[in-house]
Write a structure and sequence with these properties.
single chain, 3 domains, three-stranded antiparallel β-sheet, 14 helices, 12 strands
Length: 326
């Protein structure tokens, strides 16, 4: 059995003004994945509303309440008390990291300051948390998304009309609260291409690790999944998974042959009278036939650069025409 002293020690500091007691169990279940919560404190004015943080909840989770009166109307005294305690704990040298449980962006600077001292900072809050705070942490966990039993009751709207699946459903359900799936898919493709350029295979474990490093809030549970493999199969059509011995690897589906792509573009321009005055029309035409088309697969960041490389085409600004043969 792993000894407590061998595990990373964390100070869990909870802002009761912004976090509901319904997440109590989730908070400490999550922190167990990273280490031991040696400090468990919650800050608030217990003479007023406490967001459900009753005595029984505090006792069940061994949380020490810190009373902070609101000395002035409109000023958040809880924030200040939490910051002061965090710095005291930091300089005591007793912890390896902090878990800041709040959705308040006012704690962004605290998270940054703790990281400057080589502390591992985990943030926990709801999906309404501003991006500034989520990016300031080493890892950010959206409590209402990972705990679907709680999150469904609080964040899901009443279902109406047809149900969507995969990527469209995940993005529609969670909006911009978490990193968009399109960004994650771009990152996955970039990682696989980088490895291919180095002659390396991209294993599932490495891919998950690098996504966590790149996106502080990455967690497949944010999108309604429990396994990375199922998440990739459902949301990233351009990927295929295959098994090598006992490990799983990830690759890109064969891209459209460049020569065939050039032929299709030339044919579309001919049908348009030999000239197209809007590059987006060409992109839309390609995408109609090939839904997974991405110009980056051909080594270009812009469609215009790719078109300029085709000798039979002339590109001037947003206009593309077929060159006349001399």
């Amino acid at each position: 059995m792993e000894q407590i002293e061998d595990k990373k020690q964390f100070a869990v500091l909870i802002d009761s003004d912004n976090i509901s007691a319904r997440y109590a169990a989730s908070i400490f279940n999550e922190i167990e994945n990273y280490g031991y919560a040696s400090f468990r404190r919650i800050y608030g004015n217990w003479s007023g509303k406490s967001n459900g943080w009753k005595e029984q909840v505090l006792l069940e989770n061994s949380i020490t309440p810190v009373q902070q009166f609101a000395y002035t109307t409109g000023k958040n005294s809880t924030d200040m008390a939490m910051v002061i305690d965090a710095m005291d704990i930091l300089y005591s040298g007793k912890v390896d990291g902090f878990c800041l449980v709040t959705s308040d962006s006012d704690f962004t600077r605290l998270a940054m300051r703790l990281r400057e001292e080589n502390m591992y900072v985990i943030g926990m809050g709801e999906s309404k948390t501003p991006m500034a705070l989520t990016k300031a942490c080493n890892k950010f966990i959206h409590l209402n998304l990972i705990n679907k039993q709680v999150g469904d009751a609080e964040t899901m709207s009443v279902e109406s009309g047809q149900k969507k699946s995969g990527k469209a459903a995940a993005e529609e359900e969670h909006g911009t609260a978490v990193t968009p799936l399109s960004q994650i898919e771009d990152a996955i493709i970039s990682i696989i291409n980088d490895n291919e350029n180095k002659g390396k295979i991209t294993y599932l474990g490495e891919l998950g690790s690098r996504l966590n490093d790149r996106f502080t809030d990455f967690d497949v549970r944010n999108y309604g999944y429990t396994k990375l493999m199922v998440f990739l199969k459902d949301t990233c059509q351009r990927l295929f998974l295959y098994q090598l011995d006992s490990a799983w690897a990830v690759g890109l589906n064969d891209q459209l042959d460049r020569e065939k792509l050039e032929q299709e573009i030339r044919e579309f321009i001919r049908k348009s009278g030999g000239q197209v005055d809007n590059l987006s029309l060409i992109y839309e035409e390609i995408h109609k036939k090939h839904s997974t088309f991405d110009i980056k697969d051909y080594g270009y960041s812009r469609l215009s650069s790719f078109l300029k490389s085709i000798r039979s085409l002339s590109v001037n600004g947003n206009t593309v025409r077929i060159r006349e043969k001399k």
